[in-house]
Amino acid sequence: MNNRQLTIFRTVCEEGSMTKAAEKLYMTQPAVSQTIKELEQESGVCFLERYNRKVVPTESGRLLYQYACHILGLYQDLEQHLKETEGVRTIRIGANLSVGVKMLRGFIRAFEKKYPDIQVKVTVSGSVRLMELLKTHQIDLGLMEDLPGETDYIQEPFAKDRTLIVAAPDHPLAGKEHVRFEDLKKENFLLREKGAGVRDRFEAILRTKDCVIDPLWESRSTKVLVQAVEDGFGISVLPYCLIEEYLKEGRLEEIKVEDLCLERNLNLVYHPHKVWNDPLRDFMDIVRWYGHDEIRAMKTTDGMFHGQTDTNTLLL
After folding, report:
1. How much of the chain is helix, strand and coil, in % rounded to 5?
2. Residue 195 per-residue DSSP state
3. Which tens digit of pLDDT belongs to each residue from 39-79?
4. Can you give the pTM of this predicted structure?
5. pLDDT tens, 193-230?
6. Residues 6 or more apart from 109 whose CB is under 8 A from it?
7. Cα 66–Cα 99–Cα 155 angle in degrees, nearest 5
8. Which helix (H) or strand (E) holds 50?
9. Phi, psi of 202 (to 5 degrees)
10. How far apart are CA 125 and CA 254, in angstroms?
């Protein structure tokens, strides 16, 4: 096996198609098929099951895919560290929307005090996309909500967060003291897109109650959903930190549902075999200190750290 074969195999698994993988890799479809055939012949193992134009990894194929991601990721890490020795220094951070809007700027500003010459490259996206980037080593670290199900990645909580079911102030359920889960089934839901952590977690809770909903609206934009809720199109499920001001201004009202817990952790998420350098370790320490009461007391809604204590000194 070589890196070229592993790269092609990984892409085929991720695309689910020889043709799509060929397009993504700027190769011909026969060349991709031939590479997979050679890989299977060399190993004496069938890695893919073919169904018309679709391919699905076998059990051995799934194992090879995991190793391919890890091996290719290590090469990318090596290239990154070699660049750093030549003076090109970058750390790559992925964050969900809650962290990206309310916290990330403060983390980066604190980091820049100690490392003014290191660039922080940021990707803000949903948890599904962030996990893809972690798996392919395109980011070093993810800051996101709890991952559903079992995972090979380490999740280290650094803060608590909660999501709310919200409606317009004149909605019949707004301000009602006793709202049952059954009362929600007839409502129109306006939700984030699939792959967003807040959406995935809410749907996971619904499944435990044998309930499936078909949202009336789906959007990547919290602002779009808030405006639609205000205009009476339905109710939504959104992180508190992103709608705090709307609640304070009375533009949205929380619907408090009995026996429905929507709390979640915000986590540092990373591969257990990640190769760390000092800047990445220190960035993680800044995030960890955010969960400390003293630091949280200094944080304001502008996403920056304030107060007499210099966050940078906490890393020394």
Report:
1. 45, 20, 35
2. T
3. 888 888 888 888 877 888 888 888 888 888 888 877 777 77
4. 0.60
5. 887 878 888 888 878 877 788 888 988 888 899 999 99
6. 304, 305
7. 35
8. strand 48-51
9. -65, -40
10. 25
